[in-house]
Amino acid sequence: MVHSYSFWVFGYGSLIWRPGFEFISAQGGLLCGFHRSLCIYSHLYRGTPEKPGLVFGLLPGGSCRGRAFEISSDKWAGVLSYLRERETQVYREVRGPIKLDDGRKVEALSFVANEDHAQFAGGLSIEEKLALVDSSQGQTGSNRDYIFNTMEHLTQLGISDRRLDNICRLLEQKQVS
Q1: Is residue 55 a part of any domain in this protein?
Q2: CA-based nearest residue to 54, from 123, 150, 147
Q3: Which parts of the chain are coiled coil (predicted)?
Q4: Phi, psi for residue 22 in degrees, rounded to 5
Q5: C-alpha span between 145 and 70 (Å, rounded)
């Protein structure tokens, strides 16, 4: 474990491509014990309360490759405040080890799906997920764009996500039909 005067945040969805905070460095990282899942109803950024979208959360089991951000100690309080406002109460803050692409292990803050929150959508079928993603729009854009942006940026980082690949393929087929 590296001990330094910096903090780390693990991003696995829109944080990968739109962090919204200043950081020292960023690189790929692996979080064990959780996997990326479309399991959070979005009533603001990618949907509305009347027509919710879906965004990613971390659920127990497996592992997740994402992007790790190193934040200087003098910026940490502001970044943490920003992330708490952005991620809201639909996520729980979890601190734990991640393995960086450069081989180091560091403690990082991750935002894990709060399965007790009313916006938790963990029991949806793939068909229900596709219907929501295909038709929802929020303050920051369409739910489809969120999915495809995440996929594009994971690919740029050399990260493969079988579940997300499948969702993107099905959304593309749906658009053609």
Answers
A1: yes
A2: 147
A3: none
A4: -80, 135
A5: 27
